[in-house]
């Protein structure tokens, strides 16, 4: 008998002891840490992933992520394995869904990957299993996939199997043992506080038993609070709210950055001053663009759903418009700086620092660096990208340049990602540049130090 069909007390005791088999569908950025922590809490975990290369890396303990040592321990104890065969779901009592949910061309959620997963689960699930979704989705998506599972399996949710939704919350990083150049300017304490097992979760269930079991499962691997909500849809909406809140507030400071700079004001100084208010203010900071597959994507999920219901979403649309405009604004700062030097963008050599969408990681999904690079190429510039944390194959076809060669015959450098490794740049050795211009998209460099070395310095959010 599998866990959902067991008496409640027995099921909860087995969960607490880790005496449960699990399958994590999608062993990527979100799924692999989950699988690793489950395995190190004694769960027997099988990872299912379509990528044979990913499966090979996992089974060989070769994945470079911040929990690679924990993965190796789980492999040594034979508590985790990976496969490209969806049949590994058959023995699983817990099936976790951690697959990507990208946007379609019309900015709606692409549900095709989830439907494929639903079909695979439907063909392999047996009575007594639990399915827990972590993928970020539009409201009501979990119910659609659940119906697909029911249709194919002939089983009924709430009777034969359980369903819950616990949206992923993950602060990605890279191991400092492998990347010693990462020093984390916020300090190690920040990253310890935001480890996988230190971030609270929100859980919604299709029924009370699903909710209780899901809460118990996450309580074994998460040291922070597990918050339960009344429904799966409430949990789905919680994830959207978290990221839309950030999107809207980042858009606000991005718009203010454009305005304040025209008043010769430093937006960052103003934000730091506002932070001194002990209530009703939460700081967000301007930059050259918003990337990743959370903030920009989740806002579009709800915009599209609201539009389909005839509801106007002026604020969310405006936020997306402002944040999507920041790469163009960054290019305009460069264009003006070059013009003052008697140059245009066409024919100029522009090097971009950073391809990742966020500092000190190697994830390039929806990175604004690529938007900036494409804009500049379309304007006739010669563009190269430097990112020591990102493999050359993940630069979207753009030419790479090494950090030691970043100054060579360049007319300008744009900082798009504030990796700690870029602190090692010695601007006193920039004599090989044709034109000394720095466009700082993340308030990373010190203006005075650059200007002493003959640079024209422009920063998003500064005068």
Task: Provide the fold topology.
Elements: H1 8-17, E1 21-25, H2 31-39, E2 44-48, H3 52-59, H4 68-76, E3 80-83, E4 94-97, H5 112-124, E5 130-133, H6 141-153, E6 162-165, H7 188-193, E7 201-205, H8 208-221, E8 226-228, H9 232-262, H10 267-274, H11 295-308, H12 314-340, E9 349-353, H13 368-378, E10 382-386, E11 399-400, E12 412-415, E13 437-440, H14 447-452, E14 456-459
Parallel strand pairs: 1-2, 1-4, 2-3, 4-5, 5-6, 7-8, 9-10, 9-12, 10-11, 12-13, 13-14
Antiparallel strand pairs: 6-7
Helix pairs in contact: 1-8, 5-6, 9-11, 9-12, 12-13
Overall description:
The protein is of the alpha/beta class and 463 residues long. The protein folds into 2 domains: 3-230, NAD(P)-binding Rossmann-like Domain (Rossmann fold), CATH 3.40.50; 247-463, NAD(P)-binding Rossmann-like Domain (Rossmann fold), CATH 3.40.50.720. It is 39% helix and 13% strand. It has an 8-stranded mixed sheet, with helices on both faces. A 6-stranded parallel sheet has the order 11-10-9-12-13-14. Helix 9 (232-262) packs across helix 11. The termini are far apart.
